[in-house]
Design a protein that fits this description.
The relative contact order is 0.13. The longest helix has 31 residues. The chain has a 4-stranded mixed beta sheet, sandwiched between helices. With 192 residues, it is of the alpha+beta class. The chain has 2 domains: 59 residues; 113 residues, 3-Layer(aba) Sandwich (Trna Endonuclease, Chain: A, domain 1), CATH 3.40.1350. The radius of gyration is 21 Å and the shape is elongated. The chain is 57% helix and 16% strand.
Amino acid sequence: MKKCEKGTPGYLEYKKKVEIIRTVVYFLLVAAVYLLGYSQTHTNKNLLTVVAVVGCLPACKALVGVITRLPYPSINPKRAEEVRALSPHMTSVFDLVVTSRDKIMPIDALVISGNKVFGHLTGKKADPQYTEKHIRSILLENHFKDVSVKMYPDYKKFLSRIEGLENIAAVEKENTAEYEAKIRHLIQLISL
């Protein structure tokens, strides 16, 4: 299984596989420790039972990671290539599941152009206004002022916005890659 970095297409599917494998291994270890203690003493009242119960904590934490990521698929690779092809002068990020205290917001693709952040949301429960407000507030808390955030549930509108901003970025030829990388890093920190 090829390692996939956060923010690249296929990251969510990769993380699901890794979390499932980790969860199965953890629970198998817990079962093995419990069975070893039971086979030696023929009772549950032994030290290895306590170790097995405590070992359930990391196993359950890994299971929560699986359950959290399970409903969210990775972006279609063709769409990811289309977004990359349309935005060579901008920073793009894929397969984000941004979290807040109230909601989980899946973002298929996010493109950053200078102080403009815009993304494509999928899913029936996607709330563009809430997602925009949350990302904007996180950026403001981290001293990124005057950054506009816009989310598009419609893929065609998202692509037309990319084309428009790419034309502007190609003409201006400003070097905003470092600033965009900082915004990308911050958004990745609030994502699963």
